[in-house]
Request: fold
Amino acid sequence: MTNSQILIVAAMVVGPEYHAITSVALGLDRRSRPRVREGTRALTAGFPLAIVVTFGFAALVRAFGLQSAAFERGLRPVSHLIDTPDFFSVVVAVLVAVLVAVGVVTLRLQRRVWRHAARRADAALSQR
Reply:
């Protein structure tokens, strides 16, 4: 509605499909069929549902004439940015990938630190 580039990128990063894709990836990595199955089911049910809901919302916006005048004139800088990727689109994609990778590594390191701390605490308690 506001054609904000920040909102578009944020929606791509924190979209609801992120958990399902992560579930499939981790399931493949850890050879967990239930996790892969659940993630795949969420994706195959979620995407068609999202398409139907989005189409319905767009139809309502058009039916009630709620789209902006700029949209009517064909001014869509964000969708143009997505439809015609250039060097800066690649830069944004790489930066998002780096942020996701850093987030995953950070979570893994945090888990290891907490496990190590829990083991040390258990060992200290068992010595008493």
